[in-house]
């Protein structure tokens, strides 16, 4: 019986796929049954295959891939060289790992959030042979130089992990240095060793007694994995090298496992057993509080939307889990749960809605890898742990009216927010809203008291910030924002480094209770005119560096000043520091218009003191006793030394008594 190719393609892959195949493969269609055979041999029955190809503009690549099976296969090139010798020719050093500690030694090459799962969860050597290949010039290949990561770029391939499954047949996975920052990082070089250098597959087989079948063709399609059977399967989640696929399929250790749809639902990386009424994890190394949040299951009901094909799973009549047609969890409603533990749906990417209105506490790792959450009910949450919604891209308006404290990396990297409502927030951990570049123009935190490092770092839109109870701020507070010009921080006592570094808009700043100032305070703000810090005692380096328009600075209680204080403040006319005792290098360097310097208690200054300050008419520093060798003798003009030497010390009569710093 002859097969009608287009009819079978329509039946198993959808009508749109049928039309695409008619357009692309007219020649192959001349041979009855051939086209359907080729497609079904290399792709699971996937009714979204057409959408996945077209949405990623891969029509031509798909065409070339199918036509490649008409050609004669090429075997891997035979060679007498070892894998190490071949990789040396490709500018790599090869390392074989025999222990967990040897695997962990390669973690140093990976940036935070881009580490291999191999590092996070032990036991990989029980399942795989693990190698690392490192470019000889790896130290010169810098992550920050690659702003748009590509799996095959020079950085991504500079450190690769080559892993083979154990057993009679050895499936190879070549893992990228970017890990999950790029598409399908576990299939670098198409998982074909010969794409690194010809003959490498043969060399590994021969040297390590492996049985690797070389993959001579590869089709790079987002969220698809090529099994050792040579067939592509669409997967929803990949966790620790295990692929959780649509249609109740799990692919692990080179094997395809199919779960009976009458008994199970594979949803994300969870397995719902409808018979025994329990949810389990296939990988025992995963710790995920999603299962605990549901509790004991007594009843399971299913409802399918005929138009969208979404499936609602109702548990105990009051917990709703909504699955899309690929069995990905896209909505979760649980009005009973009061506490969410650690790593809740840590690997879920597809959640669009979550309602947990009675939850008051959320542990670390909550929806850490989710990209698409848009709607939510977090109305009673009071505390959240680290990495809360770290990579979310969907939320536009954030309201958590009862939130009191956050852990580290709260909603980092989300890029855009229209509004924030957190009236009770008291403590914000490190990296709070880090890299949220657009957050509107005005933010108010009426009860915020403490902020960690990198608060709103890299934000570029904020104009006004008010936190009337804020006392402590870490490093990089709203660093790199150029627009902010209004700050209301009347209770602020302590500042870290890089406070508003690179700001270009603030004209006046008063922080009446501030006591300590870190490095680079308002560094490179060229237009600020007035600064009042009446309670400051200690100032670190680069204070108001480049404040070219500064005309007034009030520091009545400061007693220690580090290097580069008020450098290039060309508009400053006077400075009065009644309590300062110690001054570092380059004090008032290049303040060419300063006329009056009053420091009655200063006892020590560094080199570069008052360099280029040629217009001074009143200099009062009577108690100075420690002068850096270069403070005046090398850095100040001769006329300045002669004119003012009697105001602080007679250089000619007391140089032998000077004490060096």
Structural write-up:
With 661 residues, the protein is of the alpha/beta class. Among the domains are: 67 residues, no CATH class; 134 residues, no CATH class. The protein has 13 helices and 42 strands. α1 crosses α2 and α1 runs parallel beside α3. It is elongated. The C terminus is likely disordered.
In a nutshell, what does this entry contain?
The protein is α/β, with parallel strands linked by helices and about 650 residues long. A hairpin with a 4-residue loop joins strand 11 and strand 12.
Features:
five-stranded antiparallel β-sheet; 661 residues; alpha/beta; 13 helices; elongated; 14% helix; 22% strand; 42 strands; six-stranded mixed β-sheet
> Total number of helical segments?
13
Spans with pLDDT under 50 lasting ≥5 residues? 631-638, 647-661
**What's the total number of strands?**
42
Beta-strand fraction estimate: 15-25%
Structural class: alpha/beta
Strand order of the largest sheet: 13-14-15-16-18-20
Please give the share of residues in helix: 10-25%
Termini, distance in Å?
Answer: 98 Å
Radius of gyration: 32 Å
Largest sheet: 6 strands, mixed
Chain-averaged pLDDT: 88
Task: Produce the secondary structure layout.
Layout: H1 5-13, H2 15-24, H3 34-42, H4 49-55, H5 59-68, H6 83-89, E1 92-97, H7 100-104, H8 117-120, H9 124-127, E2 128-135, E3 159-165, E4 172-175, H10 200-208, E5 224-226, E6 232-239, E7 242-245, E8 249-252, E9 255-258, E10 264-267, E11 270-273, E12 278-281, H11 290-294, E13 300-304, E14 311-315, E15 319-323, E16 329-334, E17 339-340, E18 353-355, E19 361-362, E20 375-377, E21 383-384, E22 397-399, E23 419-421, E24 427-428, E25 442-444, E26 450-451, E27 464-466, E28 472-473, E29 486-488, E30 494-495, E31 508-510, E32 516-517, E33 530-532, E34 538-539, E35 552-554, E36 560-561, E37 574-576, E38 582-583, E39 596-598, E40 604-605, E41 618-620, E42 626-627, H12 638-648, H13 651-654
Parallel strand pairs: 16-18, 17-19, 18-20, 19-21, 22-23, 24-26, 25-27, 26-28, 27-29, 28-30, 31-33, 32-34, 33-35, 34-36, 36-38, 37-39, 39-41, 40-42
Antiparallel strand pairs: 1-2, 2-3, 3-4, 5-6, 6-7, 7-8, 8-9, 10-11, 11-12, 13-14, 14-15, 15-16
Helix pairs in contact: 1-2, 1-3
């Amino acid at each position: 019986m002859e097969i009608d190719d287009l009819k079978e393609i329509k039946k198993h892959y959808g009508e749109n796929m049928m039309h695409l195949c008619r357009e692309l493969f007219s020649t192959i269609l001349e041979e009855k049954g051939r086209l359907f055979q080729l497609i079904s041999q290399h792709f699971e029955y996937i009714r979204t295959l057409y959408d996945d190809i077209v949405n990623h503009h891969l029509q031509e690549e798909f065409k070339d891939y199918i036509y490649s099976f008409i050609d004669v296969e090429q075997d891997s090139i035979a060679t007498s060289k070892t894998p190490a010798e071949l990789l040396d020719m490709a500018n790599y050093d090869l390392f074989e790992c025999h222990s967990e500690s040897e695997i962990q030694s390669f973690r140093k090459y990976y940036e935070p959030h881009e580490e291999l799962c191999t590092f996070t969860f032990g036991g990989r050597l029980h399942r795989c042979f693990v190698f690392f290949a490192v470019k000889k010039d790896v130290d010169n290949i810098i992550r920050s130089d690659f702003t748009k990561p590509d799996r095959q770029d020079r950085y991504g391939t500079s450190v690769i992990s080559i892993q083979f499954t154990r057993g009679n047949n050895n499936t190879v996975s070549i893992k990228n240095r970017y890990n999950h920052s790029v598409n399908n990082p576990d299939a670098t070089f198409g998982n074909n060793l010969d794409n690194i250098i010809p003959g490498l597959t043969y060399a590994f087989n021969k040297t390590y007694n492996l049985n690797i079948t070389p993959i001579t063709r590869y089709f790079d399609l987002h969220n698809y994995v090529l099994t050792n059977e040579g067939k592509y399967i669409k997967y929803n989640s990949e966790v620790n090298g295990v692929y959780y696929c649509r249609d109740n399929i799990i692919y692990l250790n080179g094997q395809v496992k199919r779960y009976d749809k009458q008994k199970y639902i594979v949803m994300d990386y969870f397995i719902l057993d409808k018979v025994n009424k329990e949810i389990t994890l296939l990988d025992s190394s995963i710790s995920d509080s999603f299962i605990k949040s549901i509790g004991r299951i007594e009843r399971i009901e299913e409802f399918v939307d005929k138009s969208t094909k979404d499936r609602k799973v109702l548990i105990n009549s009051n917990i709703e889990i909504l699955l899309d047609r690929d069995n990905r969890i896209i909505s979760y409603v649980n009005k009973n749960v009061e506490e969410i533990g650690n790593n809740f749906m840590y690997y879920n990417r597809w959640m669009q809605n979550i309602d947990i209105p009675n939850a008051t506490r959320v542990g670390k790792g909550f929806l850490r890898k989710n990209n698409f959450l848009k709607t939510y009910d977090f109305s009673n949450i009071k505390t959240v742990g680290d990495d809360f919604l770290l990579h979310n891209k969907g939320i536009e308006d954030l309201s958590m009216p009862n939130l009191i404290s956050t852990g580290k990396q709260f909603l980092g990297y989300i890029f855009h927010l229209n509004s924030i409502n957190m009236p009770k927030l008291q403590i914000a951990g490190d990296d709070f809203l880090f890299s949220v570049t657009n957050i509107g123009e005005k933010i108010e935190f009426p009860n915020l008291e403490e902020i960690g490092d990198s608060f709103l770092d890299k934000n570029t839109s904020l104009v006004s910030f008010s936190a009337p109870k804020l006392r402590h701020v870490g490093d990089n507070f709203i660093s790199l924002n150029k627009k902010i010009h209004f700050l209301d921080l009347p209770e602020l006592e302590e500042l870290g480094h890089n406070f508003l570094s690179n700001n270009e808009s603030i004209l006046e700043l008063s922080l009446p209770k501030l006591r300590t100032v870190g490095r680079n305070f308002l560094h490179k703000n060229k237009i600020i005119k007035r600064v009042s810090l009446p309670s400051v005692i200690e100032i670190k380096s680069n204070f108001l560096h480049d404040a070219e328009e500064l005309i007034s600075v009030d520091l009545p209680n400061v007693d220690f000043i580090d290097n580069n204080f008020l450098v290039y403040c060309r508009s400053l006319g006077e400075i009065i520091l009644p309590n300062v005792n110690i001054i570092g290098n380059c004090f008032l360097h290049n303040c060419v218009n300063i006329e009056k310097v009053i420091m009655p208690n200063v006892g020590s200054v560094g080199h570069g003191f008052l360099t280029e300050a040629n217009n001074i008419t009143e200099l009062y520093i009577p108690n100075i006793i420690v002068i850096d060798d270069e403070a005046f003798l090398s850095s100040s003009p001769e006329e300045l030394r002669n004119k003012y030497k009697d105001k602080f010390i007679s250089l000619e009569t007391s140089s032998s008594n000077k004490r060096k710093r």
